[in-house]
Amino acid sequence: MPRITLSRYLLEKQREQQWIHANLRLLVEVVARACKAISITIGKGALANALGSAEVENVQGEIQKKLDILSNEFLLDANEWGGHLAAMASEEMADPFAIPNRFPKGEYLLLFDPLDGSSNIDVNISVGTIFSVLRCPEGTENPTHESFLQPGTEQVCAGYTVYGPSTLLVLTLGDGVDVFTLDREVGSFILTERQLKIPEDTREFAINMSNMRFWEPPMQRYINELLAGKEGPRGKDFNMRWVASMVADVHRILSRGGIFTYPHDNRNPDQPGKLRLLYEANPMAFIVEQAGGAATNGRERIMTLQPESLHERVPVVLGSKNEVELVTRYHNEQHP
Ligand code: AHM
Ligand code: MG
To answer: Do 104 and 146 fall within a single domain?
Structure first.
């Protein structure tokens, strides 16, 4: 197979297939470039003095890592001048970032979690970047929080990178899911897998079991049935994996199937879930659906939820279709 770089892939989507606009091509290229910079810095680790806490709290009330801040800056700096964006929003910033007046403005809104799973950085476990692209509502000169409050079905593109043993970029433009691997010597993302498909059935689940006592009864029922294995109602043994980096857990599911959930729990009534709707749940739901899987909040499809605030959190259940449908049925039967 000839080596197809991300640039060539995108150009073909624009020129030959007329599937994307030139500005969306530019946007994805620029995001990928920023992710390369993040990947290089993460790869240097302690040598770049990049590990550890920055001892600052973000809008989520979490202590930021130095790499959370650096990754956010890489993405902002790379994207502000290209003329393809109207504004950006990030897990690490309370308010949207307006494109400075000295640069032209474009039609897209970019949302990202610059470094997902950042609690894993200091112990050298895979982390990643998650991003989602929306259109700026027509006639909006200066985008506000409200401009971003669009359901996931409005996304025109979503992707994530995994900074693991190799650096991968997983991308959907709404016509399936393709995977690129970073050639570190050349500095290009190369297409290495086309049209990923998630198997409909699985024997593997991903959940943080230590929170079991806080879950709702339908989720407890579902997990108990998996744990009962061959002798239980499911009649087969299940295996468990939990990296605690959503990108890594979701990537495993895209590669070999599985179900991932960070369910509703009652630890904090103001936070029904841990993961953020706009820049974690929605882009992952879009990718998973494009690969033939499903994604719900336990009751409804994630992509049709109407967001109410920029940093809203939601319960997430995603992955192999038949398992996601079963969990969702349990919730709707017991506590609609
Ligand atoms: P982050 O965006 O602050 O890194 O938090 C999200 C991460 C996900 O990557 C992961 O699935 C989850 O938090 C792990 O949470 P926990 O440590 O509660 O198991
Ligand atoms: Mg995150």
So the answer is: yes
| Residue 117 Cα: closest atom of ligand 1 | 4
93 & 133 share domain: yes
**Measured from the CA of 245, which atom of ligand 1 is nearest?**
9
Atom of ligand 1 nearest to the CA of 260: 11
Nearest CA to ligand 1 atom 11: 246
Does some domain include residue 178? yes
Under 8 Å between Cβ of 123 and 173: no
Looking at the structure, tell me whether residues 149 and 214 fall in a common domain. no
What pLDDT does residue 43 have? 92
**Which of 47, 102, 117, 112 minimizes the C-alpha distance to 74?**
112
Residue 279, classed as helix, strand or coil, is: helix
Condensed to tens digits (0 to 9), the pLDDT of residues 191-210 reads 999 999 999 999 999 999 99
Q: What CATH code is carried by the domain that includes residue 54?
A: 3.30.540.10
The Cα 53–Cα 180 span in angstroms is 31
- Is residue 75 included in any domain, yes or no? yes
If asked whether residues 212 and 188 sit together in one domain, one would say no
Whether ligand 1 lies within 6 angstroms of the CB of 71 is answered as no
Q: Does the CB atom of residue 178 touch ligand 1 within 6 A?
A: no
How far apart (Å, rounded) are the C-alpha atoms in residues 99 and 78? 12
pLDDT tens string 319-335: 999 999 999 999 999 87
* Ligand 1 contact, 59 CB (< 6 A): no
What is the Å distance from ligand 1's center to 118 Cα?
8
Distance, CA of 271 to CA of 96 (rounded, Å) = 21
Q: Which residues of the chain have pLDDT under 50?
A: none
> Does some domain include residue 126?
yes
- CB of 265 sitting under 6 A from ligand 1: no
Q: Which of 131, 181, 179 is nearest to 158 (CA)?
A: 131
CA 145 to ligand 1 centroid distance, Å: 24
Structural domain span for residue 26: 6-193
Task: Quote the number of domains for the chain.
Answer: 2
Q: Cα of 80 to ligand 2 centre, how many Å?
A: 22
